[in-house]
Structure formats: structure tokens, C-alpha cells
Design a protein that fits this description.
There is one protein chain. With 432 residues, this protein is of the alpha/beta class. It has two domains: 1-327, ANL, N-terminal domain (Rossmann fold); 329-427, 2-Layer Sandwich (GMP Synthetase, Chain A, domain 3), CATH 3.30.300. The chain has eleven helices and 20 strands. The strands form four sheets. Strands 3, 4, 5, 6, 7, 8, 9, 10, 11, 12, 13 and 14 form a twelve-stranded mixed β-sheet that branches. α5 crosses α6 (138-150), α8 runs parallel beside α9 (215-225) and α10 packs across α11 (383-401). The longest helix has 19 residues, at 12-30. It is globular and about 75 Å long. The protein binds adenosine monophosphate and zinc ion (ZN). Zinc ion binds next to loops. Zinc ion (ZN) binds at residues 247, 249, 254, 309, 311, 313.
């Protein structure tokens, strides 16, 4: 089933023609924004020379820093009266950044979400419970408009308030939920504590995104909830969710290439890498009116899956995001991504639903503490059992990250629960 079969199964040459004509129009529109006039001038780029898709590489990258310097509205490429909405990035580091949308931008965004949802098998019969934060964050309103466009009954429950979530889910028989993986891990425990078996609920699908998580976490959540979980990727700079979504095959996320041009670069040199190589995702939005964005460095690490997908969609897929270049930490000269630790933890049956990585400096040595919540039944046995388990986890984590971790076993609920994006790493080392 497709939302727009012609566009979703478009052949490569036609898709590239469409990308190029949209890119050209976006470039021409962009110079109405003060930021881009200066940007192209400083980098000595004549946009009239960008006449093929390959020429895109002649444009410099844009980064979060450009969004900050152009704050509040230096990148706005239409008159203010044509802008109908703004959103802001979660801004975990520094000042938040703002994105603008015209009525057409909002409508096309909703269309991409509807397209994504249909790719997972959603229909107007579905009841969609949206547990992402409503407000400046794009996860709430973004999916909301898309699910309405598809014709679902939307429950705009927003994040948090777990008992209310359960009640809404039961009373209105929600079939799809949109939730961060970390909140899904927390909520399922609350549901069980309230004497409800999550498998008895009507929820059959979840859209999980907004933060990195591993395949092991997806599997764990699918088992705990008794549902299919689909990976959803997006970032506010590119509208929000709806950039890339898994189809029913749950094997990599289709990037909607009629709206986004994908490149993968070497994060150190900026060189464009061939399809299939792992690197930093760079995205160009070719169709936004209010705020064009070219070659934006997402900091997210992934690779393009060049093989065709059995669903028939011709838009290429990207692999699950491995992490952000700025999430990586270095301990004793070893580069470590939180996802490496999460992947092994979540595959250990005794491990519960929350963990946290704390980096400490001990003299001149850096140490990785991993705080791991266990299922409560683990604390009813004897100490020896716990000690054996601690040893086992230490060994599994050590063999993955090649650094000796300090593992701390905790009772369920000891770590701060996540209601949105989880904070997985706390770095207590003083700045070097
Ligand atoms: P924001 O702009 O605040 O919505 O944050 C966007 C960022 O969230 C992305 O650049 C990614 O780092 C992260 N993110 C969103 N969706 C996913 C996903 N499905 N997997 C991994 N990371 C994600
Ligand atoms: Zn597919």
C-alpha cells in the first residue's frame, strides 16, 4: 500500500530530475534570506553554476553554528506574513535553533508523515496516540498533522503522565503509539505495575525515534509490549520527523528523496563517501519555502543501504543511526559510542529497562561507570547471584568497549525515568 504510488516508486532518473529542479528553485529562493546572501558571497559561490546534482558538492556545508548566527530569522526566505509556524530544536548544547514553515511547508510535511505511516501499514482505522512532547519540539505537532492527514483518530496525549496514557490507551483502544524508546521502556513497567499485561492492550505498532537506540532495544520493546516497532528519524532542521521512516520490512529507513538529498561524508575530512560507506549524514531540503537548508551536517552517523527494498519504494534507505559524532567519548584512547554499551546491555535477559553511563576522572585515569537497572526479581535471590551477574555484565561490556567498566547494579526505578529524550551519558570529567 502506498500513499502516493507515483512518487514513492518513481524511477531514479525521474527522481533526480525532480530533485534538480527543486534544488534550483530552492537556491533561487534562498537568496531572499540575508544569511544566504552573505553565505554565498563569503564562500564565493555563484548559485547559477549549480546546474547538476553533482554541483551540489560545490556548496559549502551548513551547520548548527550557522543556525545560531542567523538567529532569530536570518534564514527566513519569505516575507514574515507568509510564515505560519516555528519550531525549535531541543538544543541540548547551547542556544536553541529555530525553523520556520509556510502553510505549504506544513502541508507537505503532513503529507510526508502520512506517507511514512502508510508505509508501516497504518490506515484511517488506526487510533494514534502521540506521546511526544507538543510545543516547540517537532515530534508532537509533526506527527499529529500527518496522522490527521491520513485520517486516523489522533489522541494528542503528549509526553509524560503515564497513568493517564494507560487510561487513554485503554478507553480509546489506541493501535499505534508514537513515543521515544526510553519512555516506552519506562511506560511498559508502569503499565505492568498497575496489573495490566501490555500484551492485552490494543497497541500493535509503535513509532520510535527522536533519540538513538539499538536493534536490541527495539527487540526488547517489541517483546515487552507485544507489538511491531518502526524506526522514525528526523531533525528539526529538516522539518522534524518524516525525513526517514521504516516500511513494513523494518530493515532500514527510507529517506524521502523527492524532498531530501542525502550525502554521507567523512566527518573528519568532509569528503563525500560512496553509497554503503559509513559516515556523517548530510541533508539538503529541496522543497522548503520558509527556510531553505543546504548540505546540513546532521552529526548523525549512518550509511546508505544501496540495495532495493522489497516494498517497491525506490527511495533509498539509511541504516539505524549509530550515534552522533558529538556523543562519542574517548576513554584511555578508545573511541566509544553509547550505542555499543546499550546493544550488549539490552540483550542480557536480567537487565531491566534503564541504564546510565557516567564518566569520571580518577587521578589521571578516566573511568566508565555503567549504572544498570535490573528486573526486581533479581533482588529476591541471594547476593552471590548478583555478584556473578555483575561479573558477567562487566565482562560482556569490557569485551565490547575494550575498557574495564565499573558496573553498578540497581533496583528498577532508581535512575531518573525518561519522558522524552533520555540523557544516557553524564560526563563528570573536568574539561580538558
Ligand atoms: P531534534 O532536532 O531536537 O528533534 O533532534 C534531532 C536529533 O535526534 C537527530 O539529529 C538525531 O541525533 C536524533 N534522532 C532523531 N531520530 C532518531 C532515530 N530514529 N535514531 C537515532 N537518533 C535519532
Ligand atoms: Zn521498503
Amino acid at each position: 500500500m502506498y500513499w502516493n504510488q507515483d512518487l514513492e516508486t518513481i524511477d531514479r532518473p525521474a527522481l533526480e530530475r525532480l530533485q534538480l529542479s527543486r534544488l534550483r528553485a530552492a537556491l533561487e529562493r534562498s537568496v531572499r534570506a540575508p544569511f544566504y546572501r552573505t553565505f554565498f558571497e563569503t564562500h564565493r559561490v555563484d548559485i547559477d553554476t549549480i546546474t547538476t546534482l553533482e554541483h551540489l558538492r560545490d556548496l559549502p556545508f551548513t551547520t548548527k553554528a550557522d543556525l545560531r548566527t542567523s538567529y532569530p530569522d536570518g534564514m527566513m526566505a519569505v516575507p514574515r506574513r507568509d510564515v505560519v509556524r516555528l519550531h525549535a530544536s531541543s538544543g541540548t548544547t547551547g542556544k536553541s535553533t529555530v525553523i520556520f514553515y509556510t502553510q505549504k511547508d506544513i502541508s507537505e510535511w503532513a503529507d510526508l508523515i502520512a506517507r511514512s505511516m502508510v508505509a508501516t501499514g497504518a490506515t484511517p482505522d488506526d487510533v494514534f496516540q502521540n506521546m511526544m512532547g507538543y510545543g516547540l519540539f517537532t515530534g508532537g505537532l509533526g506527527l499529529h498533522y500527518g496522522a490527521e492527514r491520513l485520517g486516523c483518530l489522533v489522541i494528542p496525549s503528549s509526553s509524560g503522565n503515564s497513568l493517564k496514557q494507560l487510561q487513554l490507551m485503554q478507553d480509546f483502544q489506541a493501535t499505534i503509539m508514537h513515543i521515544t524508546p526510553s519512555y516506552a521502556l519506562h511506560l511498559v513497567e508502569i503499565i505492568k505495575e498497575n496489573g495490566v499485561d501490555p500484551h492485552d492492550l490494543t497497541v500493535k505498532k509503535a513509532y520510535l525515534g527522536a533519540e538513538p537506540y539499538t536493534e536490541a532495544t527495539r527487540k526488547k520493546l517489541e517483546e515487552l509490549w507485544g507489538m511491531d516497532a518502526y524506526n522514525s528519524y528526523g531533525l528539526s532542521e529538516m522539518n522534524g520527523p518524516g525525513v526517514s521512516f521504516e516500511c513494513v520490512h523494518k530493515n532500514g529507513m527510507h529517506v524521502w528523496e523527492d524532498f531530501y538529498i542525502i550525502e554521507i561524508i567523512d566527518p573528519d575530512t568532509g569528503a563525500v563517501l560512496p553509497d554503503g560507506a559509513e559516515g556523517e549524514l548530510v541533508l539538503t531540503h529541496v522543497n522548503r519555502e520558509a527556510m531553505p537548508m543546504f548540505r546540513y551536517r546532521t552529526r548523525d552517523l549512518t550509511r546508505i543501504i544501496p540495495e532495493p527494498c522489497p516494498c517497491g519504494r525506490t527511495h533509498r534507505r539509511i541504516e539505524r543511526i549509530k550515534g552522533r559524532t558529538d556523543d562519542m567519548f574517548i576513554i584511555g584512547g578508545v573511541n566509544i559510542f553509547p550505542s555499543q554499551i546499550e546493544a550488549v546491555l539490552m540483550a542480557i535477559p536480567e537487565v531491566g529497562n534503564n541504564y546510565q553511563i557516567v564518566l569520571e576522572r580518577d587521578g589521571s585515569l578516566d573511568k566508565v561507570h555503567v549504572k544498570v537497572e535490573l528486573y526486581s526479581k533479581m533482588f529476591h535471590g541471594d547476593m552471590k547471584e548478583l555478584q556473578t551477574l555483575r561479573k558477567k555484565i562487566t565482562e560482556i561490556v569490557r569485551s565490547t568497549i575494550i575498557v574495564n567498566p565499573v558496573i553498578e547494579l540497581m533496583e528498577p526505578g532508581s535512575l531518573p525515568p525518561s519522558q522524552g529524550k533520555a540523557v544516557r551519558v553524564i560526563d563528570n570529567r573536568e574539561q580538558r
